[in-house]
Specification:
Blueprint (H helix, E strand, L loop, with lengths): L6 H8 L10 E3 L8 E5 L2 E10 L6 H14 L7 E8 L5 H15 L2 E9 L7 E9 L13 E5 L4 H15 L3 H8 L8 H7 L5 E3 L5 H13 L2 E4 L8 H10 L13 E4 L4 H10 L4 E8 L4 E4 L2 E3 L8 H8 L1
Parallel strand pairs: 4-5, 9-12
Antiparallel strand pairs: 1-2, 2-3, 3-6, 4-6, 7-10, 7-11, 8-10, 9-11, 12-13
Helix pairs in contact: 2-3, 4-5, 4-8, 5-8
């Protein structure tokens, strides 16, 4: 099954193989952390890389948003990008690089380098972008007992757009619903959300693969806290409900880019929500941070197993 490596595998195999030590590294590879942080003179450089390998539509745009999101939720405005673009054929070149250009221009980010080539063995484009920014680093591992959990926009924003674009017709979902859902692609950037929340939050995280549930697990592990969450408080849009029901997937467990999970001190919650609302960014309180072993308690049930994104079986079936 494709997907992220387990935290145990990362700890045993990856995180201790990090090359030469460097005192400038403030934050290196760690479970749940979205980005690296490196001291450069009097400033901090925040860096994050992310691939897009399975989505068939708008991979360039998705790649830009997702790489920039990881820098944004680490407390910094993304400023530069490099792009590695691997394509199965030359027919896709213009659409992919145009997507990258448009999304980067929209976010005010410069594409400063990368690599592009054709790879016959690929069936879909493979795009990996690295985003960079300068500023004050905010780690995922900063949530404190007593904090309140806020989620912006809702669950499965990215997953809904992918379902509509890649599977909507075969799922038999109303084309009007699919058209609205595909437009969710324009909401996957969380740079505006994070720019507001970083003034209030002790930690932020960008739920990607495995959705909001997996993102909450990662935040809990990174911060060493227990998160207690009420499913009914998590915003789920009607288009998301319709497509997820048709596909037989849980909207909390499919690609969740487009939302920010933030832990905010209790006395700052009202101000954070008010500023988000003033900027027309929907948000909701979904739970609390408690002291205890790192875990996610969802509706009273402890979710400790690694969550595999619900879209992977759909892609595998489509390839057969």
């Amino acid at each position: 099954m494709p997907g992220k490596l387990s935290p145990e595998t990362l700890l045993e195999t990856v995180f201790h193989r990090t090359g030469a030590p460097d005192e400038a590294v403030i934050q290196g590879p760690a479970d749940g952390e979205d980005a690296a942080a490196i001291t450069i003179g009097d400033e901090t450089l925040v860096v994050s890389s992310d691939p897009i390998s399975l989505a068939a539509s708008h991979v360039g745009r998705l790649g830009v948003y997702i790489a920039c999101n990881d820098v944004a939720v680490s407390g910094v405005d993304p400023r530069w990008l490099t792009a590695v673009v691997m394509l199965p054929d030359e027919e896709l070149l213009e659409s992919v690089v145009d997507d990258i250009d448009q999304a980067a221009t929209e976010l005010g980010v410069a594409v400063v380098g990368g690599h592009t080539e054709y790879v016959d063995a690929l069936e879909r484009p493979l795009v990996c972008l690295t985003a960079f920014g300068l500023g004050e680093f905010l780690p995922t591992g900063g949530a404190k007992p007593g904090d309140t959990l806020i989620l912006t926009k809702g669950a499965a924003i990215e997953g809904t757009a992918i379902l509509a674009a890649d599977f909507g017709a075969e799922l038999g979902v109303d084309p009007a619903v699919c058209a609205r859902a595909e437009n969710f692609l324009g909401e996957i950037s969380v740079v505006p959300d994070a720019r507001i929340l970083r003034k209030y939050a002790t930690a932020m995280h960008d739920p990607t693969e495995g959705g909001v549930a997996a993102g909450l697990q990662e935040l809990a592990r990174a911060s060493g806290v227990r998160l207690v969450v009420d499913r009914e408080q998590i915003p789920i849009r009607p288009e998301t409900e319709r497509l997820c029901t048709a596909a037989g997937v849980d909207p909390l467990c499919i690609f969740g880019s487009g939302a920010v999970v933030a832990s905010v001190p209790h006395d700052a919650v009202d101000a954070a929500l008010a500023e988000l609302e003033a900027n027309e960014i929907a948000a909701a309180v979904i739970g609390e941070v408690e002291a205890g072993d790192p875990e996610l308690i969802l509706d009273g049930e402890s979710l400790t197993e690694l969550i595999t994104d619900g879209l992977y079986p759909l892609w595998e079936s489509a390839d057969k």
